[in-house]
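Justification of resources, computational component.

The compute hours requested in this renewal are based largely on the per-chain cost of generating structure records like the one below. Each record pairs the submitted sequence with a full structure-token output. That output is archived, and it is also reused by downstream analysis tasks.
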Amino acid sequence: MIRYTSENQGHDKNRLLHSVPYGANREKITVYVSYDEGQTWIVSKCIVPYSSAYSSLCVLPDGTIGLYVEEAYAGASGYSTMFYNFSLEWLTDGNDTFYPLGVADYRGNSSSRFRPSGNGSPLGCFQSGLQARISLREWMIKE
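The structure output for this chain reads:
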């Protein structure tokens, strides 16, 4: 579980993110969003709809969400580690948007937020939505 945004730091909402398998089996890694410090988790989206195990979340410099997860395809022996990158807007089906602090708002308002655009990803291969997945091994070979 990670803190995505905090009103105490100037963001518009408190947001926690959590990634865990759905149900009793190691499958269906789902990311949840809480707006009330973890009392309820009203937003959820399954990211890996098949066999999956451990996962870890991070917030990338452009404000998008990174999910590092172990997953296994049907018939595969063992797990592969994969990285997913997506926006809060995609995760919430357009019902919430992340606005980074410190820059004028994209609507021209005087607030200290803006709406990110472009890919801005450290891996340089993501656009919008659930942009891509790349195995750590593939990424290391490219580097």
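The chain has one domain: 2-142. Residues 2-142 form one domain.
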